[in-house]
Write a structure and sequence with these properties.
Length: about 130
Amino acid sequence: MQSDRRLRRSEQPSVALGYFLETLAGRQSWEAVALADDDGLLLGGAGRGVDPEGIAAIAPVAARDIEHAPEGLLGLVTRGRPLKVWGVTVDGQPMHLAAVGGATGRLPDETWVTLGRILGSTCASTC
C-alpha cells in the first residue's frame, strides 16, 4: 500500500494550490513563491516577509528579461533577495512560477505535473 505524502488536501483548486506552493516553498527554502498569469495577476502564493502579489506582478516582466527588469521595482518587491522565474504553460495559457530566496535551480518534474493536476489541466509544461 502506497502512503500519501500530502498531509493537507482540498477539493478546491485555489486552496490546493496554496497548500502546494506552501509545501514547495518550504522544500526549496524560498521566502515566498507566486504563480502568476501572463498579466501578473496572482493565481496562488505563499510566503513570509515578501508579498506574493508583488512577486506575481513583476514575474512576467522578469521572465522576459530579468537582467533588464526595473531594478528599483525588483528590489522593492524582493527586498533585495534573488528572484527566479520559471515559465510554465497550462492548457495553452502562459504562467509564471516565481520564487524569492533559497534554491533557484531546476525544479523536480513533479512540480509541473502537480500544478497541472491542481489546475485541472491535461498538460502543464515548462517553457
